[in-house]
C-alpha cells in the first residue's frame, strides 16, 4: 500500500461526472497526467467519500455507490483499494495500490452523493468538462492581428488577421473551408457577440497546418473540426491566395464612444436575462425574468452551449465556464428553468428547451457563467503599489502630464467602498474587502507620490476608474498624495446580505408605548423629533416588525470597526459595532418621506444557521460580531429601535422600505438586494403590510410602482 500524494498533489483535480445526476453527486473522476480517469470501488468506503466531498467543497458525504451507478467512465482507473481514514485533505493523501495500479474494470467505477451544503468560503475550481485545456485539440494561443499598423492601437481590436501560435511561431490560417460560422467562433473567443463579413488583401505569411471548419456554436477554436493541411503554391500562399480575416461586432458596453449618445436617445427594453453576484465584468449567477419576477436557472445539465447563449445575449462573447452549484452566490425568488438544453444559436436562453416538469431544485444549485470579454487594456492603466500581496496596496493610475504618461496617486478625499470596488474589478482581483484613506504603511515609488486624480465618485458598476466622475485636469486635493493617497485591499469573495421579506410581512404590528419606557430609545434618536416635547405620561405609536438578515455570500459579514473602537451605550448596556446598520422609512406614493427610523448594530451575531453550518459569532461576553456565510441575524420586533415612530402619521397608503448597510461600511458582492419594500396601509387604528419584496426581484415596470429607492446604490450618491 503506497501513498501517491507527492506526484498527484502537485496537479490534483477532482470532479463528479455521469448522467442523470444532481450537481452534488456522480462518478468520481480524477485528473492526472493530462487525463481524466476513475476510481475503483474496491475497499472504497464512506470515509473516502467524505474526503472526496470535502475536497470538492461540500460539507460532508451522504453516501457512496459501487458498480458504476452513474455510468461507466473512460480512460485510466487511477485509484484502486483506497484506504482513507476520512481525515485526509485530499484523495491523493489516502493510501492505495499506487497511481494507475489497478485490476478493475469501468463497471466498478465508484460514485458519491455529497451534502447540498457548501463549505463556507471555499474557493472553487470549475470541474465541469468544458475547459479549453481539456478539449482534444490543443491550441497554444490565438489572436486577432490588425491589418494596418495604425489600427493596432485601437481598443478593442475588432478586426484583422486570425493568427494561431504553433511551435512558438504565429501563423495565419488559409481560408480553405473557412466560413462565417468559423468567424463567429473566433469573435466569440475574443468577447464579441457578432461578426461581419470581411475580405483580406493578398499576403505571404506562414500558414498554420490546418484548415478550420466550425459549426458556429463552439466556444473555442480548438473544439472546431480541422481539415487536412492545405497544399501551398510555389509563391507561399494557400490555393485561394488569401489568409483568413475577421471583423467582429462588439457588444453595447464595449462599442465605440460615438455611438453612446445614439443609444441613450432611446429607452432600452427590459432585458430578460441578467448576471448577479460576479466579481468582474462578464461573470455572475444567471437570472431570468418570467411573469414580472426575476428567478434563477437550476444547474442540472447546465453546459457550455447554454452558457454561451447567455453570454452572447448579454453582449459578451462565448462562455469560458459554465458554473454549477451556486458557485457565484445563491439567488432569491423562484427557480424558473431546469435542465436547460440550448443548441447554441438561440437569441436568448429563454428560447432554449427546458424541462417544465422538473422540480426540486434549490438555490444551492443556481447556474452561473464566466464569459469572454473584449481586451480593453484597463489593467495597464492602474496598479496597486507597496502592499504585502498583489491584492492590496496604494492605488496608482497612469495619467498624461505635460505630454508624458506618468504614474501617480489618487486623492483619498471621499474615497469609499464604491471606488474601491471599481479598482478591484478593473484589476481582476475580485471584490474590495477594505478601503483606506491613508497609505503611509505602503510606501510606493516616490516618483508616483503626486496626485494625478481627484474628486473620484463611482456608482460601483464602472469597468474602469477613469469611467467614474472625477475632476479631470483641474485637481483639488487638500490632503495631498503620498502617505495620504487612496488604497484598497481586494478579495476573491465577499458577503451578501439579503433581508427576508416574508418575516417582515408576517411580524408587523402597532404598539402604543408610554414615553417613560422609551428613555433609552430617545437617547439613541430612535423616535421622531416631536418626541422631545412629549410629556413622560404620553404615548408614542410604534410600527414594529422583525428583520431576519441572511448572508448569502461567500465570506463572513464583519463590521468595519475593530472591537477596540466599538461604542459603548451605557443606557442599553451594549456595544455598537456599526452606528447605522439599517434604515427604516415610510414614504408616500409620490416618494415623500413621512416617517423614519434606524437601527445600530448593537449585536451582529448568528441567530440561526443552515443545517451543517456552525455559528461563529455571538455578542455575549464582548464576543466577536459578524454573520457567517449560510447564517442569519434576527432582530426581533420586541427590542428597542426595531420600529418606526408613526405617532403623527396620517391614515393612508404608504411604501415601507428597509435598507441594510446603507453607508456601504462593509463591502458586499451585491448591493442591489440590500433594500426591501412593502406596501403599507394605515387607517389610524390598524396597519396592513403586504407585497413585500427585495430590491431587484421584480421587473422594472413593476418596481416603478413602488416609490422610494430603486436600490441601495443610490442612497448616498
Explained architecture:
Helix content is 9%, strand content 28%. It has 717 residues and is mostly beta strands. Strand 32 and strand 33 form a beta hairpin. The protein is globular, with a radius of gyration of 29 Å. The chain starts with a strand and ends in a 14-residue tail after the last helix. Residues 14-115, 144-249, 273-372, 382-491 form the SRCR domain. It is an enzyme of class 1 (oxidoreductase). Its cofactor is Cu cation.
List the helices and strands and how they pair.
Layout: E1 2-3, H1 5-9, E2 14-17, E3 25-32, E4 35-39, H2 46-55, E5 61-65, E6 77-79, E7 95-96, E8 111-114, E9 141-145, E10 159-166, E11 169-172, H3 180-189, E12 194-196, E13 211-213, E14 225-227, E15 245-249, H4 260-264, E16 273-276, E17 283-290, E18 293-297, H5 304-313, E19 319-323, E20 335-337, E21 368-371, E22 382-386, E23 392-401, E24 404-410, H6 417-426, E25 431-436, E26 451-453, E27 487-491, E28 497-499, H7 501-507, E29 509-514, H8 519-523, E30 539-544, E31 547-551, E32 567-569, E33 574-576, E34 582-587, E35 593-599, E36 608-609, E37 631-635, E38 643-645, E39 652-660, E40 675-682, E41 687-694, H9 700-703
Parallel strand pairs: 4-6, 18-20, 24-26
Antiparallel strand pairs: 1-7, 2-3, 3-4, 3-8, 5-8, 9-10, 10-11, 10-15, 12-15, 13-14, 16-17, 17-18, 17-21, 19-21, 22-23, 23-24, 23-27, 25-27, 28-31, 29-30, 30-38, 31-37, 32-33, 34-35, 34-39, 36-37, 39-40, 40-41
